[in-house]
Specification:
The complex is a heterodimer of chains A (about 220) and B (about 210). Chain A is mostly helical. Helix content of chain A is about 80%, strand content about 0%. In chain A, α2 runs antiparallel to α3 and α7 packs antiparallel against α9. Chain B has a domain of about 150 residues: MetI-like fold (Orthogonal Bundle), CATH 1.10.3720. The chains are: A mainly alpha (about 220), B mainly alpha (about 210).
Chain lengths: ~220, ~210
């Protein structure tokens, strides 16, 4: 029974369908990681700068988002935001939910990276006449980002894995499309799940190798 | 507020199942994770390889896929509910992360500790149990706490397989009452009741470890 499934599950049509799902998975992950790098850096810098009240306020919101399940945030963006007039299509609802969640995660990484920079770097830059903002952009951030590359890549790995949660709002990504394929015939379940697992594994293991390489290169 | 009053037993049941699943998965993944961490530093090369393969596989595939594997495939041969398959998947998935955390903790302990223990006549197992692991767990405690927070959050995966947890009950209530906004707010607060105090406690622990 199982062997029958292996040969008939992967018709050209099904393979193309699954590959399209992989495209959606990668697309959501890439857009989300870029957006969350930007927002996460801003939030991380705000927390690092210890501005009176404002940093505490932002930090608290960040903590709340970080401690919620991503699945809940996805459902909230897609099902609850329309109640207050914000309607988003599935793809962008996923991107917004994942970017919000990942920004909160990355903000912590950015803050940690900034805190690991020696105070002398700030003092030296200031003593050489750079403004606060110039010090941040030209001296501190480049050093901090270098240290942050490995943890950022591991966040990217969890992002790729977490896109599968978006099948909860019927985003047509790889895991969802897999379900559509094996709904045709129950003998397809094992081969299709196996192939999906393998594709995720190759993608993420490859990323983790890049992280390890970067770690060694930058250490 | 009426929403909370009307559906309070359902919310509470979901909260209970989320806690139950998280606790079972926590205990299981601590045991498994520690086992695989020790495997990865054993003197035998093939044991190390085996431990490493396990960790790499479960770290790099989505929890949802593992859950579906148990719910759709394994349940054909061994009868299990959505709750059980979700909790087993959660346990296996988290154990890979705990293995990494504990391994890092063990590696942070000076090599002399193991050599000293062995020189005093302890076996590898005894040295591990009495000398290395107690110290390693202390170092690893903050990251273990973070893994537990992730576990609680990830338990929302049970909603996909009818696991009766908080997320599942929230979806049901939202679908019945159409009050999506209020329902998901309440569900969020209930998750935060578990995760937020833990998160602040971990930050406190980290600060204390840094000072020590």
């Amino acid at each position: 029974m199982v062997t029958i499934g292996i040969f008939s599950a992967f018709t050209p049509q099904n393979v193309m369908y699954l590959l399209g799902g992989l495209g959606v998975t990668v697309g959501v992950s890439l857009i989300s990681v870029v957006l969350s790098l930007i927002f996460g850096s801003v939030v991380g810098i705000i927390q690092f700068e210890r501005l009176p009240y404002f940093s505490k306020f932002v930090g608290t919101i960040n903590n709340v988002i970080r401690n919620l399940p991503l699945l809940l945030i996805i459902f909230f963006v897609y099902f609850a935001l329309p109640k207050i007039g914000i309607h988003l299509p599935i793809f962008w609802a996923t991107v917004v939910a994942m970017s919000t969640f990942e920004s909160a995660m990355l903000a912590e990484i950015v803050r940690g990276g900034l805190e690991s920079i020696d105070i002398g770097q700030f003092e030296g830059a200031r003593a050489n006449g750079l403004s606060n903002v110039q010090t941040m952009i030209y001296i501190v951030l480049p050093q901090a980002y270098k240290k942050m590359i490995p943890p950022i890549i591991s966040q990217l790995i969890s992002l790729v894995k977490d896109t599968s949660l978006a099948m909860g709002i019927v985003l047509s990504e790889m895991t969802y499309r897999g379900q559509i394929v094996y709904a045709q015939n129950s003998t397809y379940i094992i081969p299709v799940l196996a192939v999906i697992t393998l594709v995720y594994f190759i993608l993420n293991y490859g990323l983790s190798l890049v992280a390890r390489w970067a770690d060694r290169k930058l250490a | 507020m009426a929403l909370l009053q009307d559906n309070f037993p359902t919310f509470l049941q979901g909260f209970g199942y989320t806690l139950l699943s998280s606790l079972i998965a926590l205990v299981g993944s601590m045991i498994l994770g520690t086992g695989f961490a020790i495997m990865q530093i054993m003197p035998q090369k093939w044991v190390r390889k085996l431990g490493n393969i396990y960790v790499q596989i479960f770290r790099n595939i989505p929890l949802l896929v593992i859950t579906f594997f148990f719910f759709l495939v394994v349940s054909k041969y061994v009868k299990m509910s959505g709750f059980t398959s979700g909790t087993i998947a959660l346990m296996l998935y988290t154990s890979a992360f705990i293995a990494e955390t504990v391994r890092a903790g063990i590696l942070s302990i000076e090599g002399g500790q193991m050599e000293g223990a062995r020189a005093n006549g302890l076996t590898f197992g005894q040295a591990m149990q009495h000398i290395i692991l107690p110290q390693a767990f202390r170092v690893a405690l903050p990251s273990l706490g973070n893994q537990f927070i992730n576990l609680v959050k990830n338990s929302s995966i049970l909603a996909f397989v009818g696991g009766l947890d908080l997320m599942y009950q929230g979806n049901m209530i939202a679908a019945n009452t159409f009050e999506t906004f209020g329902t998901y707010m309440i569900v969020g607060v209930m998750y935060l009741i578990i995760t937020l105090p833990l998160s602040y406690y971990i930050q406190h622990l980290e600060r204390k470890l840094k000072q020590a």
